[in-house]
Amino acid sequence: MSLSVGLVILLLIAIHAFYVLAEFGAVGVRRSRIRQLAEEGHALARRLLPHLEDPRRLDRYIAACQVGITLSSLVLGAYGQATLARALAPLLATYGGWSEALALSAASVVVLVGLTSLEVLLSELIPKTVALQSPTTVALATAIPMRWSLGLFSWFIALLNGSGLWLLRLLRIPQARHRHVHSPEEIALLLAESRDGGLLEPDEHRRLQRALQLTTRKVRQLMVPRTQMVAVDLDDPVEEVLRTVAASPFTRLPVYRGTIDDIVGIVHARDLTVGWVRAMRAAGGQRVVPPDLVRQAMRPVPRVPEMVRADRLLGLLREARSQMAIVIDELGGVAGLVTLEDVLRELLGPVPDEFKAEAAAPQRLPDGRLLLPGRMRLHEAEPWIGPLGDGEADTVGGRVVEALGHLPEVGERVTIDGVEVEVVAVEHHAVAAVAVRPAQLAGGRR
Question: Domain containing 252: what range?
Answer without folding.
Answer: 219-348
